[in-house]
Design brief:
Number of strands: 14
Largest sheet: 6 strands, antiparallel
Number of helices: 16
Radius of gyration: 22 Å
Strand content: 25-35%
Strand order of the largest sheet: 4-3-2-1-6-5
Oligomer: single chain
Helix content: 25-40%
Distance between the termini: 46 Å
Length: about 375
Amino acid sequence: MASPDDRYAFIAEWYDAHAALVRRYQFLFYAKDATIEMFDIKNRRLFLKRSRFEELSMKDLYIGAIINIHARQLKITDYADQFTRNKLERTTSKTYAMIKPDAVGRAGEILNRIHEENFIVCQAKKMSLTRSEATKFYVEHDGKPFFEKLLDFMTSGPVIAIELMGVNCVKRWRDLLGPTNTAKAKEDAPYSIRAVYGTDATKNACHGSDSDESARREIEFFFGPASPRVSATFNNCTLCIIKPHAVAGGLAGNIITAIYKAGFQVSTLQMFRLEKANAEEFYEIYKGVVNEYMPMVDELCNGACIAMEITKDKNVATNFRELVGPSDPEIARHLRSQTLRARFGIDKIKNAVHCTDLPDDALLEVEYFFRILNS
């Protein structure tokens, strides 16, 4: 039996659609050998015998996380013992980060910085704030001389809202941002985000919560039930999904940068964690057509993915399909080495991104994520 230092215990919930009820489990993760074990709380019995599960690591386990265990999507809702609480609460603090309108075009580079500093992106979405929403968010600055200028700027274009998690998250993110005024940042912290991407004290690339309390409030504002909606256009668009393996591998920033460099626009994006039923429904067109249908479904719901509405012109679906490349990355590397799948894919299942195959399906796929799943 592993020592207590090797074992972490959580309460996890799974919605059983057939029985229309939520089932609760004690979920155990043994970090030393990457094994898991589950106990059915209600029936007081072993549900899953201890077994290896190398797809999971400690960074995937935190309150609110959604994990996929043998086709069941579990949500971690609490710690199951004091040891786990004491050990992890110090390392899983959260903060709110926002890429402001002036830096949205450099979002891929900023996401790379976030990954390099070992932050975990828990949620993300791109939106355009109304003046009312911006006023409510910056209410503590109401009446200050710069308030109206700040509102004008924050409503001048889309922003990307991000929930970050990590050790000492609030302070570390603010340290990475650097001083509020870009000129001071360039002097005092020349490699900080504001020094590299900012312009002045208002157009300073990114925002970060100033305390744990502010972080909770700001995360709720942007990701709670009454949060602002994403900025999808549903016009001359196609869909791109950065698959879970690419998100987990820190490739999202490079993929987004490559899309922008190719002349396409990411008019909106949002992080999703799909249930298997949603993945099956989305990929239904491939059922019985491609042999990889079920592995494709399993990959799409095997962690967080990032869905993006891609825009450019009326031929965007066809042109973007060319940028993505053949479904098999090995073939792509031989025939079209600069395509996204050639550069970032592993195999036919973990091929970095999904894109709409047929122009007639483009709007339907965009609506599936940004209307149906968001409703």
